Amino acid sequence: MQNTHLRTYVKKHPDNKMAWYLLGKEYVREGQEGKANYCFQQAGEVYEAFERSKAPADIWVDYQNKLVEMAEQKEKKHRIRKMWLTLLMLLVLAGLPPADAPGFNRDAAETLATALESVGDSGEEPLSGGQEEQTVPVSNSNVFTAAGFGGSHQGETALAAAWSGAGPKVETSAVLGMQMTDNWALWKRNMPVKYIVQTNSSGRLTAQSYDAKQCNCEPPEVSKDIKLLAQAWTAKQESAASLSSAIITYQKKKGTWPKNVSQLAQPFPNNILGETAPGMTEMFPSLLSLHQQGKGIAGQETNDAQAGQSDSPQAGSPFADTLGGKLFLQDQLEIVVDKSNHRLALISGKTIIRNYEVGLGGERTPEGTFVITDKVVNPNGRADGEFGTRGMQLSDTNYAIHGTNEPNSIGLDESLGCVRMSTGDVEELFALAPQGTPVRIGTDLLPDTILVPEAKDRYQYTLVPKQNNPNKTYHWLN
Length: 478
Fold this sequence. Notes:
Layout: H1 4-12, H2 17-30, H3 33-43, H4 45-52, H5 59-74, H6 77-94, H7 108-121, E1 142-150, E2 153-154, H8 156-165, E3 172-181, E4 184-186, E5 193-199, E6 205-209, H9 212-215, H10 224-254, E7 275-276, H11 280-292, H12 304-307, E8 333-338, E9 343-348, E10 351-357, E11 368-377, E12 390-394, E13 400-402, E14 419-420, H13 423-432, E15 438-442, E16 462-463
Parallel strand pairs: 1-3, 4-10, 8-15, 13-14
Antiparallel strand pairs: 1-2, 3-4, 3-5, 5-6, 7-16, 8-9, 9-10, 11-12, 11-15, 12-13
Protein name: L,D-transpeptidase
InterPro entries: LD-transpeptidase, LD_TPept_cat_dom, TPR-like_helical_dom_sf, Transpep_catalytic_dom
Family: Belongs to the YkuD family.
């Protein structure tokens, strides 16, 4: 009988209404309506809350699977307990599917009962209402994360992390929504708020969905303060990703770690960073420490914020406003050029930060992998030259990504093989992508969606002096 563990649990913990509700669903599955009704009566308001919910039936099942994976990876009892509390919260938000629903997981009740028993044995009772009592005074703080929404992506893991990371040190945890297309997450400066988890004045956790389709409701307006903080957070994550990638380049080139931002932002040809952005000096020590510990290099650690990491941010840290206390865009920046649709994207992992329209040379544009070497301001020696105001050479080849004095060629195959960009686009890319940025050129790699901020929301930077090459006028392919 599948409900053996649940029956044992409710005997030990008859006041746990969540367990009664789950046991009732098992009895429904077995056709024992009388026993099921008795369990539902014991469940009381939990039964009412679940049965009235109109949220998608399978959202909690998918979430639970991810939650179990996270718990197994952590292999710590306190983490497991916290994750199951998150599950209880999501059950209240999303609702439990009928026992005969196509997406119903028959092992869910048994798995939950086992976890609940392990918690109960330690003297800690899970809360059936999905709200966790806190007795420590709440400080005023806001943290952010982002997740993909669309198709099969509903941001369950990010919501789990927001709930688990909330508590006495965090007043508001906001989950921003990235649009999904072709398994790419699209990063924007004005991403909508999808969920907010809050700790109120009494220390109680609550969650609010701001997605009308997801909650099947009329959600309230997101406050202006949260919107402004969210936009500032996205801007800071971009500069952090640029600085993090520059640290990687420096270590690879020099075999040692940089001591400060100034060592990355030197005159040509040591201009790993061609521009600096506000806040880089403050965030440098934290990023350097992550890399030295092997926690900030792509391939050595997954993005914990996206995977559900909920470690409390350290007070005073430049990433105290990020869920998990680390930079969000952890993978090294990479440039991808798609010859099929004339697109150039700046990416971090599977997140597209920018997707520009570019001019190419058709078959004359080479396919393969390269890295950014020379980064030059005014490669022709003047701002109105044929290569525009910026140029980035591809490895030690005669090809480059550069501006153009022929803006009408953008989107066409009129170059001799180089990648042409409009002035605003190439200057922004030059600022974001440091030396050493990998470049991949091929076909059918990127979505058609152009992803470029409005002029007022462009990446803000300060040009490092002496970025031109006084000893050379570039003539790529000419």
